[in-house]
Amino acid sequence: MTHPVVILGAASFGGGELLRLLELHDGVRVTHAVSRSQSGRNWSAVHPNLGNRARIERFVDEVDWTRLAESERIVVFSALRHGELAAQYPTLETAWQEAGLAERILLIDLSPDFRLEGSPGGFCYGLSEWMAEDLRGARRIANPGCFATALALGLLPLARNLELEDASAYGFTGSSGAGLTPTERTHHPFRAHNVRPYQPFQHRHQREVDRMLARHAHPVDWSFIPYSAPWVRGILVTIEARLTRPVTEAALARLYRESYAPSPFVLWVEPPPGLLEVVGSNRCLIGGAVEGLRVAVFVVLDNLVKGMAGQAIQNLNIACGWPVDRGLDRLAGPYPA
Ligand SMILES: NC(=O)c1ccc[n+]([C@@H]2O[C@H](COP(=O)([O-])OP(=O)(O)OC[C@H]3O[C@@H](n4cnc5c(N)ncnc54)[C@H](OP(=O)(O)O)[C@@H]3O)[C@@H](O)[C@H]2O)c1
Protein backbone atom coordinates (compact mmCIF):
# COMPACT_ATOMS: atom_id res chain seq x y z
CA MET A 1 0.00 0.00 0.00
CA THR A 2 1.35 3.44 -0.90
CA HIS A 3 1.26 6.41 1.47
CA PRO A 4 -0.42 9.61 0.23
CA VAL A 5 1.89 12.63 -0.12
CA VAL A 6 0.92 16.28 0.29
CA ILE A 7 3.41 18.89 -0.97
CA LEU A 8 2.99 22.41 0.41
CA GLY A 9 4.58 25.04 -1.86
CA ALA A 10 4.53 22.57 -4.75
CA ALA A 11 5.08 25.26 -7.40
CA SER A 12 8.54 26.02 -6.02
CA PHE A 13 11.84 24.58 -7.28
CA GLY A 14 11.75 22.20 -4.32
CA GLY A 15 8.16 21.22 -5.12
CA GLY A 16 9.06 20.56 -8.76
CA GLU A 17 11.97 18.33 -7.74
CA LEU A 18 9.79 16.42 -5.27
CA LEU A 19 7.18 15.84 -8.02
CA ARG A 20 9.91 14.66 -10.42
CA LEU A 21 11.60 12.32 -7.94
CA LEU A 22 8.52 10.94 -6.18
CA GLU A 23 7.18 9.61 -9.51
CA LEU A 24 10.07 7.11 -9.26
CA HIS A 25 9.17 6.03 -5.68
CA ASP A 26 6.85 3.04 -5.35
CA GLY A 27 6.11 3.54 -1.62
CA VAL A 28 4.21 6.81 -1.99
CA ARG A 29 1.93 8.72 -4.36
CA VAL A 30 1.49 12.50 -4.51
CA THR A 31 -2.21 13.16 -3.90
CA HIS A 32 -2.12 16.92 -3.23
CA ALA A 33 0.25 19.47 -4.76
CA VAL A 34 -0.64 22.63 -2.87
CA SER A 35 0.14 26.08 -4.25
CA ARG A 36 -1.72 29.21 -3.33
CA SER A 37 -0.26 31.14 -6.26
CA GLN A 38 -0.83 28.43 -8.92
CA SER A 39 -4.05 26.81 -7.68
CA GLY A 40 -6.16 25.40 -10.55
CA ARG A 41 -3.29 25.24 -13.04
CA ASN A 42 -1.82 21.96 -14.27
CA TRP A 43 1.45 20.87 -12.66
CA SER A 44 2.99 20.99 -16.15
CA ALA A 45 2.15 24.69 -16.53
CA VAL A 46 4.76 25.39 -13.84
CA HIS A 47 7.01 22.32 -14.18
CA PRO A 48 7.03 21.54 -17.95
CA ASN A 49 9.82 18.96 -17.49
CA LEU A 50 7.51 16.51 -15.67
CA GLY A 51 5.95 13.43 -17.29
CA ASN A 52 2.44 13.09 -18.69
CA ARG A 53 0.68 12.83 -15.33
CA ALA A 54 1.57 16.52 -14.81
CA ARG A 55 -0.58 17.46 -17.82
CA ILE A 56 -3.69 16.13 -16.05
CA GLU A 57 -3.11 16.87 -12.35
CA ARG A 58 -3.78 20.36 -10.94
CA PHE A 59 -2.44 22.39 -8.05
CA VAL A 60 -4.90 22.88 -5.20
CA ASP A 61 -4.97 25.74 -2.70
CA GLU A 62 -5.87 23.71 0.37
CA VAL A 63 -6.24 20.17 1.70
CA ASP A 64 -9.32 18.60 3.26
CA TRP A 65 -7.36 16.57 5.83
CA THR A 66 -10.44 14.59 6.92
CA ARG A 67 -10.36 12.87 3.49
CA LEU A 68 -7.00 11.34 4.38
CA ALA A 69 -8.33 9.87 7.64
CA GLU A 70 -8.25 6.28 6.32
CA SER A 71 -4.51 6.39 5.61
CA GLU A 72 -2.11 4.56 7.87
CA ARG A 73 0.50 7.31 7.32
CA ILE A 74 0.38 10.65 5.51
CA VAL A 75 3.60 12.23 4.25
CA VAL A 76 3.71 16.04 4.10
CA PHE A 77 6.65 17.80 2.45
CA SER A 78 6.82 21.56 2.87
CA ALA A 79 8.75 23.50 0.24
CA LEU A 80 7.45 26.88 1.38
CA ARG A 81 9.51 30.01 1.55
CA HIS A 82 11.45 30.77 4.73
CA GLY A 83 9.02 31.63 7.55
CA GLU A 84 5.86 30.42 5.80
CA LEU A 85 5.58 26.98 7.40
CA ALA A 86 6.42 28.36 10.84
CA ALA A 87 3.53 30.80 10.37
CA GLN A 88 1.10 28.10 9.21
CA TYR A 89 2.25 25.36 11.58
CA PRO A 90 -0.10 25.99 14.54
CA THR A 91 -3.13 25.99 12.19
CA LEU A 92 -1.93 22.83 10.47
CA GLU A 93 -1.36 21.00 13.77
CA THR A 94 -4.89 21.97 14.87
CA ALA A 95 -6.35 20.69 11.57
CA TRP A 96 -4.41 17.41 11.93
CA GLN A 97 -5.57 17.00 15.55
CA GLU A 98 -9.19 17.64 14.57
CA ALA A 99 -8.97 15.09 11.75
CA GLY A 100 -7.38 12.59 14.16
CA LEU A 101 -4.21 12.48 12.03
CA ALA A 102 -1.50 14.22 14.05
CA GLU A 103 0.27 10.97 15.05
CA ARG A 104 0.18 9.64 11.50
CA ILE A 105 1.60 12.71 9.77
CA LEU A 106 5.25 12.55 8.76
CA LEU A 107 6.21 16.18 8.09
CA ILE A 108 9.48 16.95 6.29
CA ASP A 109 10.23 20.65 6.02
CA LEU A 110 12.74 21.90 3.43
CA SER A 111 12.88 25.44 4.83
CA PRO A 112 15.20 26.78 7.54
CA ASP A 113 12.26 27.33 9.95
CA PHE A 114 12.91 24.42 12.34
CA ARG A 115 16.56 23.52 11.73
CA LEU A 116 18.37 25.05 14.66
CA GLU A 117 18.54 23.73 18.19
CA GLY A 118 15.83 25.32 20.29
CA SER A 119 13.38 25.60 17.36
CA PRO A 120 9.81 24.77 18.41
CA GLY A 121 8.08 21.54 17.45
CA GLY A 122 10.82 19.00 18.32
CA PHE A 123 11.97 18.56 14.71
CA CYS A 124 14.78 16.09 14.05
CA TYR A 125 17.63 17.59 11.96
CA GLY A 126 17.75 15.56 8.76
CA LEU A 127 21.39 15.28 7.73
CA SER A 128 20.71 11.74 6.52
CA GLU A 129 24.19 10.19 6.73
CA TRP A 130 24.83 11.43 10.28
CA MET A 131 21.38 11.49 11.87
CA ALA A 132 19.91 8.15 10.78
CA GLU A 133 19.51 6.89 14.36
CA ASP A 134 17.36 9.87 15.32
CA LEU A 135 15.51 9.88 11.99
CA ARG A 136 14.22 6.31 12.34
CA GLY A 137 10.56 6.64 13.30
CA ALA A 138 10.75 10.48 13.42
CA ARG A 139 7.51 12.32 12.61
CA ARG A 140 8.83 15.89 12.24
CA ILE A 141 12.00 16.40 10.22
CA ALA A 142 13.86 19.63 9.39
CA ASN A 143 15.77 19.02 6.16
CA PRO A 144 19.22 20.69 6.11
CA GLY A 145 20.23 23.64 3.98
CA CYS A 146 22.05 22.95 0.70
CA PHE A 147 25.35 24.60 1.70
CA ALA A 148 24.99 23.11 5.20
CA THR A 149 24.76 19.63 3.67
CA ALA A 150 27.90 20.07 1.56
CA LEU A 151 29.85 21.71 4.39
CA ALA A 152 28.83 19.18 7.04
CA LEU A 153 29.45 16.13 4.83
CA GLY A 154 32.91 17.51 4.00
CA LEU A 155 33.93 18.76 7.43
CA LEU A 156 32.57 16.12 9.82
CA PRO A 157 34.96 13.24 8.98
CA LEU A 158 37.95 15.60 9.31
CA ALA A 159 36.82 17.21 12.56
CA ARG A 160 35.79 13.90 14.10
CA ASN A 161 39.00 12.01 13.36
CA LEU A 162 41.85 14.53 13.06
CA GLU A 163 43.04 17.43 15.16
CA LEU A 164 42.46 20.69 13.27
CA GLU A 165 44.20 24.00 14.02
CA ASP A 166 41.50 25.74 12.01
CA ALA A 167 39.63 25.49 8.71
CA SER A 168 38.41 27.83 5.95
CA ALA A 169 35.60 26.92 3.58
CA TYR A 170 34.65 28.52 0.25
CA GLY A 171 31.48 27.55 -1.61
CA PHE A 172 30.06 28.35 -5.05
CA THR A 173 26.33 27.97 -5.68
CA GLY A 174 24.11 28.24 -8.76
CA SER A 175 21.15 30.61 -9.11
CA SER A 176 18.44 28.04 -8.27
CA GLY A 177 19.71 28.24 -4.67
CA ALA A 178 18.10 31.67 -4.43
CA GLY A 179 14.58 30.34 -5.07
CA LEU A 180 11.77 31.46 -7.35
CA THR A 181 11.57 35.18 -6.83
CA PRO A 182 14.18 37.06 -8.89
CA THR A 183 16.15 39.88 -7.30
CA GLU A 184 18.65 42.32 -8.75
CA ARG A 185 21.45 40.00 -7.69
CA THR A 186 19.85 36.81 -9.03
CA HIS A 187 18.42 38.22 -12.29
CA HIS A 188 20.11 36.52 -15.28
CA PRO A 189 21.86 39.54 -16.90
CA PHE A 190 23.63 40.33 -13.63
CA ARG A 191 24.36 36.76 -12.62
CA ALA A 192 25.39 35.07 -15.87
CA HIS A 193 29.10 35.62 -16.61
CA ASN A 194 29.58 36.87 -13.06
CA VAL A 195 30.82 35.54 -9.71
CA ARG A 196 30.55 37.39 -6.43
CA PRO A 197 31.05 36.66 -2.75
CA TYR A 198 28.06 37.28 -0.50
CA GLN A 199 27.47 37.25 3.28
CA PRO A 200 31.16 36.51 4.02
CA PHE A 201 31.50 34.81 7.44
CA GLN A 202 27.75 35.40 8.05
CA HIS A 203 25.93 32.68 6.10
CA ARG A 204 23.14 31.20 8.23
CA HIS A 205 24.03 27.62 7.28
CA GLN A 206 27.20 27.89 9.41
CA ARG A 207 25.07 27.47 12.53
CA GLU A 208 23.60 24.22 11.19
CA VAL A 209 27.13 22.88 10.65
CA ASP A 210 28.20 23.97 14.13
CA ARG A 211 25.25 22.03 15.51
CA MET A 212 26.48 18.88 13.73
CA LEU A 213 30.12 19.47 14.77
CA ALA A 214 29.03 19.73 18.42
CA ARG A 215 26.98 16.55 18.09
CA HIS A 216 29.36 14.33 16.07
CA ALA A 217 32.87 15.79 16.48
CA HIS A 218 33.94 18.83 18.47
CA PRO A 219 33.83 22.57 17.92
CA VAL A 220 36.22 23.78 15.20
CA ASP A 221 37.59 27.26 14.55
CA TRP A 222 36.33 27.58 10.98
CA SER A 223 34.94 30.17 8.58
CA PHE A 224 32.85 30.15 5.43
CA ILE A 225 32.62 32.46 2.41
CA PRO A 226 29.88 31.68 -0.14
CA TYR A 227 29.92 32.87 -3.76
CA SER A 228 27.04 33.23 -6.21
CA ALA A 229 28.11 31.55 -9.43
CA PRO A 230 26.68 31.80 -12.97
CA TRP A 231 25.31 28.27 -13.39
CA VAL A 232 21.77 27.18 -12.38
CA ARG A 233 22.22 23.99 -10.31
CA GLY A 234 24.96 22.71 -8.10
CA ILE A 235 27.31 23.53 -5.27
CA LEU A 236 31.09 23.18 -5.11
CA VAL A 237 32.64 23.63 -1.67
CA THR A 238 36.36 23.66 -0.85
CA ILE A 239 37.38 23.15 2.77
CA GLU A 240 41.00 23.82 3.61
CA ALA A 241 42.20 22.81 7.07
CA ARG A 242 45.50 23.02 8.94
CA LEU A 243 46.28 19.90 10.95
CA THR A 244 48.41 19.51 14.06
CA ARG A 245 49.92 16.28 12.67
CA PRO A 246 50.41 15.36 9.01
CA VAL A 247 48.23 12.78 7.27
CA THR A 248 48.87 10.93 4.01
CA GLU A 249 46.54 11.15 1.02
CA ALA A 250 45.88 7.42 1.36
CA ALA A 251 44.86 7.86 5.02
CA LEU A 252 42.61 10.78 4.10
CA ALA A 253 40.88 8.71 1.42
CA ARG A 254 40.45 5.81 3.87
CA LEU A 255 38.95 8.14 6.45
CA TYR A 256 36.24 9.35 4.06
CA ARG A 257 35.59 5.92 2.58
CA GLU A 258 35.12 4.46 6.06
CA SER A 259 32.99 7.40 7.27
CA TYR A 260 30.57 6.97 4.37
CA ALA A 261 30.86 3.23 3.79
CA PRO A 262 27.15 2.56 4.47
CA SER A 263 25.94 5.41 2.23
CA PRO A 264 25.10 4.74 -1.43
CA PHE A 265 25.15 8.49 -2.06
CA VAL A 266 28.31 9.98 -0.49
CA LEU A 267 31.42 8.76 -2.29
CA TRP A 268 35.15 9.53 -2.16
CA VAL A 269 36.54 10.00 -5.68
CA GLU A 270 39.93 10.53 -7.27
CA PRO A 271 40.71 12.90 -8.91
CA PRO A 272 38.55 15.57 -7.20
CA PRO A 273 35.01 15.73 -8.63
CA GLY A 274 33.34 18.22 -10.97
CA LEU A 275 29.81 19.55 -10.72
CA LEU A 276 28.37 17.71 -13.73
CA GLU A 277 29.10 14.39 -12.04
CA VAL A 278 26.31 15.08 -9.53
CA VAL A 279 23.83 17.48 -11.14
CA GLY A 280 20.38 15.84 -11.32
CA SER A 281 21.34 13.04 -8.92
CA ASN A 282 21.28 12.52 -5.16
CA ARG A 283 25.03 11.94 -4.99
CA CYS A 284 27.56 13.95 -3.06
CA LEU A 285 31.11 13.38 -4.31
CA ILE A 286 34.14 14.23 -2.19
CA GLY A 287 37.82 14.36 -3.13
CA GLY A 288 40.91 15.82 -1.53
CA ALA A 289 44.59 16.73 -1.51
CA VAL A 290 47.32 16.92 1.14
CA GLU A 291 50.39 19.18 1.37
CA GLY A 292 52.37 18.98 4.62
CA LEU A 293 50.03 19.97 7.43
CA ARG A 294 47.44 21.34 5.01
CA VAL A 295 44.54 19.31 3.75
CA ALA A 296 41.95 20.34 1.16
CA VAL A 297 38.60 18.62 0.69
CA PHE A 298 36.36 19.25 -2.35
CA VAL A 299 32.63 18.55 -2.16
CA VAL A 300 30.04 18.69 -4.96
CA LEU A 301 26.28 18.12 -4.85
CA ASP A 302 23.09 19.28 -6.56
CA ASN A 303 21.49 21.88 -4.27
CA LEU A 304 17.99 20.90 -5.45
CA VAL A 305 18.52 17.14 -4.98
CA LYS A 306 21.04 16.04 -2.31
CA GLY A 307 20.83 19.61 -0.98
CA MET A 308 17.03 19.52 -0.82
CA ALA A 309 14.40 17.18 -2.38
CA GLY A 310 16.60 14.07 -2.72
CA GLN A 311 17.81 14.23 0.87
CA ALA A 312 14.18 14.79 1.95
CA ILE A 313 13.27 11.49 0.23
CA GLN A 314 16.27 9.79 1.88
CA ASN A 315 14.84 11.02 5.19
CA LEU A 316 11.37 9.73 4.29
CA ASN A 317 12.93 6.31 3.63
CA ILE A 318 14.87 6.30 6.90
CA ALA A 319 11.86 7.49 8.93
CA CYS A 320 9.69 4.74 7.39
CA GLY A 321 12.32 2.00 7.84
CA TRP A 322 12.68 1.49 4.07
CA PRO A 323 15.97 1.03 2.18
CA VAL A 324 17.61 4.45 2.20
CA ASP A 325 17.83 4.55 -1.60
CA ARG A 326 14.23 3.52 -2.30
CA GLY A 327 13.09 5.58 -5.30
CA LEU A 328 16.52 7.17 -5.65
CA ASP A 329 18.68 4.22 -6.67
CA ARG A 330 18.33 4.67 -10.43
CA LEU A 331 18.52 8.44 -10.44
CA ALA A 332 21.31 9.85 -12.61
CA GLY A 333 21.84 13.24 -14.18
CA PRO A 334 22.69 13.98 -17.83
CA TYR A 335 26.35 14.05 -18.83
CA PRO A 336 27.18 16.35 -20.52
CA ALA A 337 24.34 18.60 -19.34
N1 LIG B 1 16.58 26.53 -3.68
C1 LIG B 1 17.42 25.75 -3.02
O1 LIG B 1 18.49 25.36 -3.52
C2 LIG B 1 17.07 25.29 -1.63
C3 LIG B 1 17.83 24.26 -1.05
C4 LIG B 1 17.51 23.80 0.23
C5 LIG B 1 16.43 24.36 0.91
N2 LIG B 1 15.72 25.38 0.33
C6 LIG B 1 14.57 25.91 1.08
O2 LIG B 1 13.43 25.20 0.58
C7 LIG B 1 12.28 26.05 0.51
C8 LIG B 1 11.79 26.09 -0.93
O3 LIG B 1 12.77 26.74 -1.72
P1 LIG B 1 12.61 27.01 -3.29
O4 LIG B 1 13.87 27.64 -3.71
O5 LIG B 1 12.19 25.76 -3.93
O6 LIG B 1 11.35 28.01 -3.46
P2 LIG B 1 11.01 29.51 -2.99
O7 LIG B 1 11.33 30.51 -3.99
O8 LIG B 1 11.61 29.74 -1.67
O9 LIG B 1 9.39 29.48 -2.92
C9 LIG B 1 8.70 28.48 -2.26
C10 LIG B 1 7.20 28.76 -2.23
O10 LIG B 1 6.95 29.76 -1.24
C11 LIG B 1 5.84 30.56 -1.67
N3 LIG B 1 6.34 31.94 -1.89
C12 LIG B 1 7.23 32.38 -2.80
N4 LIG B 1 7.39 33.71 -2.72
C13 LIG B 1 6.58 34.08 -1.71
C14 LIG B 1 6.28 35.32 -1.11
N5 LIG B 1 6.85 36.46 -1.56
N6 LIG B 1 5.42 35.33 -0.08
C15 LIG B 1 4.83 34.19 0.35
N7 LIG B 1 5.06 32.99 -0.18
C16 LIG B 1 5.92 32.95 -1.18
C17 LIG B 1 5.31 29.98 -2.96
O11 LIG B 1 4.27 29.05 -2.67
P3 LIG B 1 2.73 29.24 -3.13
O12 LIG B 1 2.68 28.96 -4.60
O13 LIG B 1 1.95 28.28 -2.31
O14 LIG B 1 2.35 30.69 -2.84
C18 LIG B 1 6.55 29.26 -3.50
O15 LIG B 1 6.24 28.22 -4.36
C19 LIG B 1 12.75 27.43 1.02
O16 LIG B 1 12.38 27.57 2.37
C20 LIG B 1 14.26 27.39 0.87
O17 LIG B 1 14.93 28.17 1.84
C21 LIG B 1 16.01 25.83 -0.92
Write the layout of secondary structure elements.
Blueprint: E1 3-8, H1 13-22, E2 28-34, H2 43-46, E3 74-78, H3 84-98, E4 105-109, E5 124-125, H4 128-135, E6 140-142, H5 146-161, E7 164-173, H6 188-191, E8 196-197, H7 205-216, E9 222-228, E10 235-243, H8 249-259, E11 266-268, E12 284-291, E13 294-301, H9 305-320
Parallel strand pairs: 1-2, 1-3, 3-4, 4-6, 5-6, 7-9, 11-12
Antiparallel strand pairs: 7-10, 8-9, 10-13, 12-13
Helix pairs in contact: 1-9, 5-7
Bound molecules: NADP nicotinamide-adenine-dinucleotide phosphate.
H/E series:
EHEHEHEEHEHEHEHEEHEEEH
**Mind telling me the CATH class of the largest domain?**
Alpha Beta
Q: What gap, in angstroms, lies between the N and C termini?
A: 36 Å
Low-confidence stretches: none
Task: Give the count of structural domains.
Answer: 2
Ligand species: NADP nicotinamide-adenine-dinucleotide phosphate
The CATH superfamily of the largest domain is known as Dihydrodipicolinate Reductase, domain 2
Number of helices: 9
Strands, total number: 13
The quaternary structure here is single chain
